[in-house]
Amino acid sequence: MTDALPDNTGYVAAAYLVVFALVLLYLVIMARKLARLERELVELNELADARVAPERDRTGEEVGAR
Amino acid sequence: MRYGTRLTTLSLLTAATMTAALALAFFYAPMDADQGFMQKIFYVHVPLAIVALCGFVFGGVMAIQHLRTRDPRYDLRSYVAIHLSLVLGAGVLVTGAIWAKASWGHWWVWDEPTLVSFLIIFLLYATYQPLRFSIEDPERQARYASVFAITAGAFVPLNFVAVRLAQSYTHPRVFATADGGLPPRMQVAFLVSLAAFALLFVTLWRYEMTSKHASAQLRSLRRKLTADGDRGLPARGRSAAPSLPSP
User: Fold this and answer.
1) How far B216 CA lies from chain A's nearest CA (Å)?
2) From A31, which residue of chain B is nearest by alpha-carbon distance?
3) Residue numbers in B near A6 (CB within 8 A)
4) ipTM over 0.85
5) Which residue in chain B has the smallest CA separation from A17?
6) Angle, CA of A10, A13 and A18, to the nearest 5°
7) B226 occurs within a structural domain
């Protein structure tokens, strides 16, 4: 195959690289969205912990009072 | 519906098909007698164009479903398909320009119907996002965007037929030429390439749908966790992207 490679190999490489770069760019955008989702999930987890902790304390106090 | 189901299998299948397509294009398909090595651009440019155009039509079909059922999930499906097809369309234009430069010596040829018609379709769909963004009310935005997607989606096959009927034959044809089209080995490489890009489209579409669905689920969870309902949520603001209702 290499014997037949003409001068315009660069054009072929460029065309394939463009497609590769586009897919890569899309993956980068998806990765950013995933990171944002993870941040939100961490935030919600903290929010859930903050809600659960006072309830646990209250239950503990009630048990202690008995 | 959970869009993330079997996404790993789909991703692996896409990667395998894409590898096979590249191998077939470079090591199995014969060298073109006329264009030589640069004809290899065909295996990426043409499948990309077909998949992008089919994506626009799919967006139109989903828009019909949205108008029929008023289900916002169809609007989201249509939006993601059009958005993804635009990205692929940009790839088609760039790879086409590279191929034109290599074979005709010019980056762009204005009297070539296939090129110009694709550019018209691309520019038409490039107005889809600004159209959505210009309408604040989400319901009205979804309805208008669906009408646009249906009209533009119907234009795609019409445009394809019009180009086929055009007299210029400067642009290489894929199958339906008078002398029988592609040799069998080139046809195999082309069809595998087409399958690979179709799978890539489906995979990326599913990725984005999964992401949007997860966002909606998180929003709903936040609403349930915050005692004061929506007050804990950041204001959505104006957006071109549709938002799913809380499950």
Assistant:
1) 10
2) B211
3) 36-38
4) no
5) B95
6) 120
7) no
- Would residue B229 count as lying in a domain? no
pLDDT tens digits, one per residue of A13-59? 999 999 999 999 988 988 898 899 899 889 888 888 887 777 777 77
- The answer to whether A40 faces chain B, any CB pair under 8 Å, is yes
Q: Inter-chain contact A8–B214, Cβ cutoff 8 Å?
A: no
Specify if B227 maps to a domain: no
A65 has a chain B CB within 8 A of its CB: no
Residue B134 CA, chain-centre distance (Å), reads: 23
Cα B82 from Cα B61, distance rounded (Å): 11
Amino acid at B200: L
Output the domain CATH number for residue B47: 1.20.120
Tokens 């010596």, residue? Answer: B105
Give the Cα separation of B116 and B122 in Å (integer): 10
- The range of the structural domain enclosing residue B14 comes to 7-173+181-211
Backbone angles phi, psi at B174, to 5 degrees: -85, -60
HSE-CB for B94 with a 13 A CA cutoff: 17
Q: Pick from A5, A47, A48: which is nearest to B37 by CB?
A: A5
* Within-domain flag for B149: yes
Considering the entire predicted model, what is its pTM? 0.85
pLDDT tens by residue, B81-96: 999 999 999 999 999 9
Residue B102: HSE in the Cβ half-sphere, 13 Å Cα cutoff: 25
